[in-house]
């Protein structure tokens, strides 16, 4: 049953990544693209964690943490660039 | 692994997967950029949170190892998800709205993005020059 639930969750997140990819390629505005990229990093965290559960190890924790950190910093850097025209003033 | 634990972990995984898929579907489905912000910031956080709790429980019940690492990731996401939502909303306002298109925000304040008050605000006032340049 756990294998079935794992497969369902992985399928859901793969579908979510495809939706986000569509929104990155076809978007009405710049902020939508960045929102979709930010969502892609969040979904990637879930995918890596699900892969870790499947493999039965906890060593993918560093990868998820790196994704979380880099996703947050890149989104904030984008917003700052749009608002102020500069990232490091 | 006992049966109740397996059921609980499977339920968490299904909830997490459903929330993640719905949160990203909102990006495609919803009509307006400001409403599109709503899906990912709430649903993806809850979805990833459920997946991380499921990972902790699976490590505990399967291998007898108590793993606190996932809690760190969940805490980080819970702190940063509102911030990214706010920043993207602010950037969107700045990019696609003129100041006179927006409603008045309240008494005698202005929208922070258009920061006319920022100059008069003592918190953002320029610091006095260092003594040797006076």
Automatic annotation (TrEMBL), chain A:
**Where the protein is mainly located, per its record?**
membrane
Q: Keyword set for this entry?
A: Antiport, Cell membrane, Ion transport, Membrane, Transmembrane, Transmembrane helix, Transport
Instruction: Provide the protein's localization.
Output: Cell membrane
Q: Which Pfam families match?
A: MrpF_PhaF
Keyword Endoplasmic reticulum appears in the UniProt entry:
no
The transmembrane segments are 6-25, 34-53, 59-83
Specify the protein's topology with respect to the membrane. Answer: Multi-pass membrane protein
Q: Which GO terms describe its molecular function?
A: sodium:proton antiporter activity
Q: Does the keyword Transmembrane helix apply?
A: yes
Extract the InterPro entries matched here: MrpF/PhaF-like (IPR007208)
GO CC, alphabetical: plasma membrane
Q: What does the similarity note say?
A: Belongs to the CPA3 antiporters (TC 2.A.63) subunit F family.
Tell me what this protein is called.
Answer: K+/H+ antiporter subunit F
TrEMBL record, chain B:
Name the UniProt key words of this record, in alphabetical order.
Answer: Membrane, Transmembrane, Transmembrane helix
Report any Pfam family annotated for this entry.
Answer: PhaG_MnhG_YufB
Q: Supply one GO molecular-function term.
A: sodium:proton antiporter activity
Q: Which InterPro entries match?
A: PhaG_MnhG_YufB
**Domain of life assignment:** Bacteria
Membrane-crossing segments per the record: 6-28, 40-61, 67-89
Q: Which PANTHER family match?
A: ANTIPORTER SUBUNIT MNHG2-RELATED
Kindly provide the name given to this protein in its UniProt entry: Na+/H+ antiporter subunit G
Per the UniProt entry, what species is this protein from, by scientific name? Answer: Paracoccus contaminans
């Amino acid at each position: 049953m756990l294998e079935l639930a794992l497969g369902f969750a992985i399928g859901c997140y793969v579908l979510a990544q495809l939706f986000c990819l569509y929104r990155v390629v076809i978007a009405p505005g710049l902020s939508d693209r960045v929102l979709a990229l930010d969502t892609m990093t969040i979904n990637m965290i879930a995918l890596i964690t699900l892969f870790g559960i499947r493999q039965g190890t906890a060593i993918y924790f560093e990868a998820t943490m790196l994704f979380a950190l880099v996703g947050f910093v890149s989104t904030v850097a984008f917003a700052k660039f749009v608002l102020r025209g500069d990232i490091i003033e | 692994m006992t049966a109740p634990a397996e059921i609980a972990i499977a339920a968490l995984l299904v909830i997490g997967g459903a929330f993640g898929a719905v949160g990203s579907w909102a990006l495609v489905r919803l009509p307006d950029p400001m409403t599109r912000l709503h899906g990912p910031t709430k649903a993806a956080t809850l979805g990833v949170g459920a997946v991380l709790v499921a990972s902790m429980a699976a490590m505990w019940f399967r291998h007898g190892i108590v793993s606190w690492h996932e809690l760190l990731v969940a805490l980080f996401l819970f702190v940063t998800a509102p911030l990214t939502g706010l920043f993207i909303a602010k950037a969107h306002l700045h990019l696609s709205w003129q100041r006179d298109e927006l409603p008045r925000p309240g008494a005698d304040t202005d929208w922070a993005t258009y920061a006319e008050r920022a100059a008069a605000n003592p918190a953002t006032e320029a610091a006095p020059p260092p003594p040797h340049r006076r």
